UniProtKB/TrEMBL annotation:
Function: Participates in both transcription termination and antitermination.
PROSITE patterns xref list: KH_TYPE_1
UniProt organism field: Acetobacterium wieringae
Summary of subunit composition and partner proteins: Monomer. Binds directly to the core enzyme of the DNA-dependent RNA polymerase and to nascent RNA.
Keyword Transcription regulation: yes
GO biological process: DNA-templated transcription termination; transcription antitermination
Compartment(s) of residence: Cytoplasm
Protein name: Transcription termination/antitermination protein NusA
Gene: nusA
Amino acid sequence: MNQEFIRALDVIQEEKSIDKEELIQAIEAAITTAYKKNYGNAHNVEISIDRENGDIQVFALKEIVEVPENDHSQISLEKAREVDSNYEVGDFFRKEVRPRDFGRIAAQNAKQLIIQRIKEAERNIIYDDYLKRQDEVLTGIIKRIEKGIVYVEIGKLEAVMLPSEQTTGETYTLNQRLKVYLLMVKKTTKGPQVNVSRTHPGLVKRLFESEVPEIFDGIVDIVSISREAGSRTKVAVKANDPSIDPVGACVGQKGVRVQNIINELQGEKIDVIKWSDSVEEYLSNALSPAKVVEIIANKDEKSAVAIVDDYQLSLAIGKEGQNVRLAAKLTGWKIDIKSKIDYVNQHNESKTQNSGLTEDILLELKEELESAEALELMNSSVSEEDVLFDNISDLEN
């Protein structure tokens, strides 16, 4: 080895970000291992590479003792002091040796180790690069699909999209360009493995950030997202500027902004909800597109009853309970949906049991509730509980 070798290490350090000193120490260790393997009789050995000119020196090491028992590994203090009078018992005597074919062995091992370290460095660079981009949306190209796993080429590597991260109803084809959410980056013996997703709520969040400048600039915040990928998503937003309509900013003029996101998600429905610090208002908004008449909230238990008109009941609940399920997940509240009639009847029974009313009075109460007057009252701005109590008071009088 020579100065050209040292210059090559300088280039590697600059281009691959591999520390030169660490690399030299690793080469010394690799050559030491190779030396012991090929020249087993001299098992105590030290390899030294000159940092300036690249020359390699091999030193056989012998322990200094009073009376040697093994000539290969020990030397007497008397003989050692013939070379250097400062030696003491317990020190190691260093003698330079130059075995036959050692230069070839050293060069081979140095080359192998450098190649290995360069590969490791490149893997680490790729790992660090993608680790910084975790939780971001990246665009890739589908290169292969095997056993239900979609492999997406993103830059210098193939990302993995497992079946659990694929959206039901979406179709994936070779060479298809696709936006994916970078879910996880981990090191493996074969290099960094990147897992991506099309189902994660973070995908929706990042798409809104790219489509809505007000979100990107921090004027509008996304408070919460609940998603059933491929079907429906609810996004709660709030404005940090009172003059800004957060829902309007996200939807865009003529719905262009939100439609771009819907198109990217291949038709997934998106409800943009205005967040409110009023629990009743927030829960009511979360049940959109249904119109809520009243919210009765139990703040201690974080549970609420949402009262809707009869014709709004199925819309509030949603297909297979999806709307109320997403609203509950969005807000973190347990939500029970009741029609106005069901709610009044339920409280009717509860209050009757508590007051000990007779069956005759119950019958009269039922007839009263079914009368046109009661229905008219229920459609007014008066709450259902007030209507019920008024009817009971009338009957008692």
